[in-house]
Structure prediction request, 404 residues.
Amino acid sequence: MSAIFGEILRFGQSKGPEISLKVFGDEHYARYEDMNGYSAIYDDELGVFCYARLSAGSFRSTGTPLSEPVPEGLVRHLQESQETIVARAGARKLRRAAMAGGQREAEVVRTVGPNQGLLEGRVLSIGTVKGLTILVNFQDLASTVTRPDVEEMLNGANYNRNGNICSAREYFDRVSSGKLKYTNFVAGPYTLSRNREFYVNNLLVEEALRLAVADGLNLKQFDSRNENIIDALNIMYAGQTQYRGELWPHNWHIDLRFGTMRTDLYLLTSLGRTPADLSIGTFCHENGHLLCRFPDMYDYGERDGDSVKSAGIGSYCLMGSGNHNDNGLSPSPVCAYLRDLAGWCDNEIDLKTAANHQARQGDYNTVLKYRTSKPNEYFLVENRSRMGLDRGLRVRSEFCVSSL
Prediction:
């Protein structure tokens, strides 16, 4: 899942020009505002974003496009009731589970138990993994990004195009201290059967994979464990990221069968309009879920039962909002807590017993812990300076202490 906390993003409209909106939320529930703070909702009949009004705690379209004057009496920053938000988020999860091939229960993250804080499922955080990335265009929208462009972004050496700090392969190699060797085979681009707007409410993953298989692709090459499971299925669609419906960047389960091979987890994100749009941030974040089973390090209003969303660890971790640092060009490293769970840290320093120890920026192979007298509670210390993978942080330097 990729969360947005007030960023200004561009959206397509089937019967109008692209529009800029401020976004708050995630793939399960999101709220949109125009640049003046008026809440907006997409009107399917009109094919454009319109001003939203409240009716019994839920948004309804006023029928007035955002390009027109504000309807009389409308106030800024309207929000739906908490009951509506919870109901809409629950309905989206059930809908996605049904589209993905089964009524999968919501994932629960527990720091004590068999997964020790990771999500359930296959963990591929150590070893050599070859992912499959499929590029797709829509009937009404194509990208000028080529297969070689994406191959370079995912697999390149010393990659810095458009200001990216490295390729996705280099990112995971660095933060795992060489323990995860992750490359991708890129297929396509293929053209889907419908316009982009259709796929806001219809998942495009199966159609994209069938196009690749029909093109002669051998899926067995993406099964590193010899379990007849595609390790990593990534779909990238043409155009700017659409933070709406099934086009919101996300990672989820899908059960598809192709001979002896089957799917497990997939990633969906955008390809961009031109090569200048390519950035590694969201791809790395969603593959953190897909490969390593990292949870999101922000609160989308469910973990404590209070329905209050927060940025959590924020920009200090790839799995918080750190994938958006520097517009996705310099995603934060995976935080020490998750690196430790992934088995990426060979050196554990017990700060309660160790002599003086220096916390070094960029030492991803070391975890510094201060254990308390309480069961399962400890503090982690990191040196986070604005350099290397942390160059996109908003502060110059800082010691980051987290407790668990």
